[in-house]
Amino acid sequence: MSEEQMNSANKPISADGRTYHVETKEGEMANRIITVGDAKRARALAQHMDKILLERESHRGFVTITGIYKKLPVTIIAIGMGPSMMDFFVRETRMVVQGPLSIVRFGSCGSICDAKIGDIIVATGAFAITRNYRFFSHQEEKPYILWPAVASDDKLTRSIASKIAQPLGTDHVFAGLVGNADSFYGSQGRTGSDFYDANDALLDSVHDSYSDAVALEMECHMLLHLAQVSTGPDGSLPPSIRAACALMVYADRQGNKFISPETSKRMVEVAARAVLDALVEDMPSQEGLHPAAGSV
Ligand code: R1P
Question: What are phi and psi of 38, to 5 degrees?
Fold first, then answer.
């Protein structure tokens, strides 16, 4: 990175090469990445790596753990919640990692299909749901905007689904489109709050617009969208990022139930190796080699 590229308003990077929010620098992150919301989930996944090389917590709450799994470098990062945090993570990671990136989101979601608590949903693609602020200023009729869907990487998605089905059983793995809302509450159709959200009909309109919609959460679409628009080092296409999402069902929106801490812990244990295996098989051997791999 040249001097003038560093610490500009466009790319805030410290003198020692760390991005402002995620606080990682070149050499600290692998080209194979699992992203989660919760730092405890990141640490639980990291227990399955063969060796941990570094763990770093940024002043904005990103927890980055890089280690070795089956002789290949892998990074697990906890980013918190929402599309903005996904945006910080993907863009700042791209600034400090050269070459192709494979990113898997291993998150949680609310099921809007037959998947129950304890099941896993893999995203064939994702669409965004945003609050339409014009409606709340009496300027437009629709309170929510449903955006076009973006596809996941098909090969990576299929690999994750088949590997998770081995411990969990095919009856417990679902696939379909995931709605990425800009709120856990209003734009996911949760009602009975202390605010006027005009969302009584939102879940019906999601199903009307996307017959294969299976889940709602807050990060998948931003990840898939940024992968879609990622470029090579000289601004060229095709995209340099491949991405997929596997989601644990924490909320059963049809049955109005929420997961227990014990079940959520067990789900991570059941799925951890499937997600790690899919990621290292997706980018085997020398492709996107991380400097730390030399010390394995
Ligand atoms: C809400 O509780 C959070 O859980 C889901 C949602 O997308 C949102 O971020 O994902 P994670 O469990 O990965 O954070």
Answer: -105, 130
Q: Is residue 205 part of a domain?
A: yes
Atom of ligand 1 nearest to the CA of 217: 7
- At residue 235 the predicted structure's pLDDT band, cuts being 50, 70 and 90, is confident
- Our answer on whether the CB atom of 217 is closer than 6 Å to any ligand 1 atom is yes
Domain assignment of residue 114, yes or no: yes
- 91 burial level (CB within 10 Å; 0-12, 13-18, 19+): middle
CA 82–ligand 1 middle distance (angstroms) = 7
Pairing relationship of beta strands 72-78 and 32-36 according to DSSP bridges = parallel
Report the pLDDT value the prediction gives residue 43, as an integer from 0 to 100: 98
* pLDDT (average), residues 99-111: 97
Domain range enclosing 257:
3-284
β-sheet bridge partners, residue 226: none
Alpha carbon distance 293, 50 (integer Å) = 12
CB of 176 closer than 8 Å to CB of 109: no
Residue 73 lies in a domain: yes
pLDDT of residue 295: 46
What pLDDT is recorded for position 64? 98
Question: For residue 240, how far is its CA from the centre of ligand 1 (angstroms)?
Answer: 26
Is the ipTM higher than 0.90? The answer is: yes
Q: What is the pLDDT of residue 292?
A: 56
Closest ligand 1 atom number to CA of residue 220: 7
* Residue 182 beta carbon below 6 angstroms from any ligand 1 atom: no
Does ligand 1 lie within 6 Å of residue 179's CB atom?
A: no
Is residue 267 lining ligand 1, measured as CB closer than 6 Å? no
Per-residue pLDDT at 296: 41
How many domains does one find in the chain?
A: 1
In a domain, 106, yes or no: yes
Give the model confidence (pLDDT) of 261-278 as tens digits.
999 999 999 999 999 999
Nearest alpha carbon, ligand 1 atom 12 = 108
Instruction: Return the residue whose CA atom lies nearest to atom 14 of ligand 1.
Output: 37
Cβ 267 vs Cβ 118: under 8 Å: yes
**pLDDT tens per residue across span 181-208:** 999 999 999 998 899 999 999 999 999 9
CATH of the domain at 132: 3.40.50.1580
Which residue, by CA, sits nearest to atom 4 of ligand 1? 108
